[in-house]
Amino acid sequence: MAATSPQQSVLPSRTFTNGSEDDAVPGEDTSEVTKLFNERLQAWKHAVVYVEDYVTATEKMQHVHGKEYEKVLKTVSNPLKEGHHFDQALGGVAGMFENIRSNTQGISNSHYDTAKQLKGTILPIFERLHTEIKNKQKELSKGAGKGSKMVDKARNTTQKHIELLGQHTAAYDSTGGKMSASEDPYVLQRGVFHRLNKQIQEENNNRQDLIAVQNSFAQFEAHVIAVIQQGWGSFNQVLAAQAEQTKAMYADMTMTTQSIKPDFEWNGFVHRNNAILIDPSAPARSISNISFPNQNHKATQPMIAGSLERKGKLLKKYDTNYYVVTPSKFLHEYKTDDDFAKDPTPEVSLYLPDCIVGAVSGQKFNVKGKDVSKGKVGNTFSMSHEFAFKAHTPNDANQWWEIIRAAAGQTTNELPDSSSPNSPISPTESRQPAPLNTQNLAMEKETFHRTPSSAHPASATPASAVSAPRSGIEGKPGAY
After folding, report:
1. Residue 304's beta-bridge partner residues?
2. 13-24 as b/e, with b when 16 or more CB fall inside 10 Å?
3. Pair 395, 448 in one domain
4. What torsion do the CA atoms of 151, 154, 155, 161 make, to the nearest 10 degrees?
5. Do residue 387 and residue 239 come from a single domain?
6. Residue 459 CB partners (closer than 8 Å, separation 6+)
7. CA 20 to CA 18: how far, in whole Å?
8. What is the domain range of residue 408?
9. Three-class secondary structure of residue 386 per DSSP
10. pLDDT along the chain (480 residues), means of 10
């Protein structure tokens, strides 16, 4: 029979969404591709089972000749399981089984020696192929299937933190910003970014696994067809000694099987499922293109942010850390402004309305208060401590002091220690001052409870020191 030409290979059309603004937690089924490939392996396994049954029945048929040969026909009389996975046109697996049915009907004679060779030589070929397909199913389940579960778990975690951010941004608006440090929308948003980054890593890893599986299936299916062709070739040699008519019929079965192109079924499969399969050329997801509810809410935007030096309690040395004053009136200390390396949890959090702010002297100013970053239990046992800060320049110190003083519960005229403690920067080193973010300073200061500006002479800061916000990174106020 003349075989039709195979369809041209085409790339699948479905891609992971990567527009200008993606959903943080897509609603797609991460196991959809895995399920499709698992079902396809089931189809191939059942196809091989059909061949195994056929050879087994043929071996038994040699003992009962023509009348018992009807049992052989029954093994392939039913439609293929998962038949929609096979191209119904001539030249494919479905056409191969149709050819087997028609030729089997005409076989009427057999020999006992043929039965022995079928059982000892031909049947093991398909049994080994059957085992290979089972192993491929296990590999798919433990590899890509496990990756899909990891993606689902990461997405659930991100969704929970996005919902938590939504709750506390709403609470910020209803309570006027009165909340605990752990509920600060600024802190919660940084936590969302951290978990979203982990989620995207899991999604991209799983995507690469699925692309690798998808690419390997074409080679695997070519191997399956090659083994079937090999088995049928051996099958034809065993039956060559039979009568001429039987030999011709089995030769026709073999010719039909061997005419299947290695990529015939794969191309048809890709063409029929191009809306589900992944396009390997599509770009991976990027956090820069993702938005989520309450992103950049006013409660998440710092009043001022940048690096300060703080004197240690024991060694009395100044260490540089990243500090931020939030609209919720917290002064948070971080090791760095990196949201992705680790969970950005504040090292120290001072609720400024409960703090006392001293006067500013040059680059230095002090804040006395209680660290509330450890939760309710930790806050109960924590003691008030005087935090000695040092800015990079007197102008920076005045900007920090003005914002902190406006939010603080009390101010004093007490000057910081004028002695020169050890600093991690040697006098001979030149250090570029880190820029500060004072965006929206004038607006946010009106919302704080501030003490009279006459509390200390240093409060009369020149307008130019406050109204000129600076940023070290274009488009990100307060980043340095």
Report:
1. 325
2. eeebeeeeebeb
3. yes
4. 180
5. no
6. 402, 405, 411, 453
7. 7
8. 301-421+433-465
9. strand
10. 44 46 63 80 92 87 71 81 80 82 73 82 92 86 67 76 82 77 83 80 72 80 92 85 78 88 88 86 86 91 94 85 95 92 91 93 92 73 85 94 91 75 41 45 41 36 37 44
